[in-house]
Amino acid sequence: xxxxSLHVTTLxxxxxxxxxxxxxxxxxxxxxxxxxxxxxxxxxxxQLPGLSEIVLIGSYSSDLFTDFIGRCQQTYRISIKYLQEQxxxxxxxxxxxxxxxxxxxxxxxxxxxxGDVCGDLPVDEMVAxxxxxxxxxxxxxxxxxxxxxxxxxxxxxxxxxxFCQLSRKYMQ
Length: 172
Description:
Number of helices: 6
CATH class of the largest domain: Alpha Beta
Strand content: 15-25%
Helix content: 25-40%
Low-confidence stretches: 158-172
Strand order of the largest sheet: 5-4-1-6
CATH topology of the largest domain: Spore Coat Polysaccharide Biosynthesis Protein SpsA, Chain A
Structural class: alpha/beta
Largest sheet: 4 strands, parallel
Number of strands: 8
């Protein structure tokens, strides 16, 4: 995909719904269909032309990811970094705290995804769509949650097509 040079996956989730399993293994490394959850992202992203690096941001100990990252770098032939937060900073907090590292080399484009989303994501189509837009930035959202469920996931408010806020309460 032209223009995409960096991908960031945020791993800022505690895995409370995976307990007691997540007490022994970080949720991003929990096997889904025999493969660690976050590796599903890496597998899909590594196939994107022009992607030069994958950055994982989270508050888990970096020691827990060393072997995993080494294996994935060999398997997928792509640079992978893990940036550890000193404390959990929430969905976008890690991006803000690590912004100088994430955009320090001025990548042409940055693609960010939550690391606990699992599925056959059409990342090539998503990147193609984003690349075709005239704006400098884009936010892709889903409407899969019902109004009752939305309090569990947060809501994004838009004002004049600009990001306004992320709220835990339903917004109209």
